[in-house]
Amino acid sequence: MAENAKNRPVENENPLVGNVIIFVVMMALFLLGLVLVSWLDFTTVWPMAALILCFAGAFFIPMTFLGRSDSGADHRR
């Protein structure tokens, strides 16, 4: 790995600012979910619909935009 200059060390994968932004967005989704659970009374549909959207966002944002799903083959060699 040292002979390939394109490979960066692991500690440079995610800068601090990016990690802080990701944390703030995910924490906002979590806190919004807590507020929506407090409004959930099974007579209106919108709190549960918003909870499902929060779950989808919390699941797909890290997996789709932040993940490196195509880099697995690089580490197996």
Any overview of this molecule?
The protein is mostly helical. The chain is 65% helix and 0% strand. The chain has helices at residues 16-39, 46-66, 72-76. Helix 1 (16-39) runs antiparallel to helix 2. It is elongated and about 55 Å long. 1% of the residues are buried.
- Uncertain regions: pLDDT < 50 for 5+ in a row? none
Q: What share of the residues does DSSP label as strand, in percent?
A: under 5%
CA-based shape? elongated
Q: Work out the helix count.
A: 3
Radius of gyration: 18 Å
Question: Distance between the terminal alpha carbons, to the nearest Å?
Answer: 10 Å
Helix-strand pattern, N to C?
HHH
| DSSP, total strands | 0
Structural class given helices, strands, pairing? mainly alpha
The main sheet comes to: none
Task: Reconstruct the topology from this structure.
Blueprint: H1 16-39, H2 46-66, H3 72-76
Q: What key phrases describe this protein's structure?
A:
single chain
Short description:
It contains 3 helices and no strands. It has helices at residues 16-39, 46-66, 72-76. Helix 1 (16-39) packs antiparallel against helix 2.
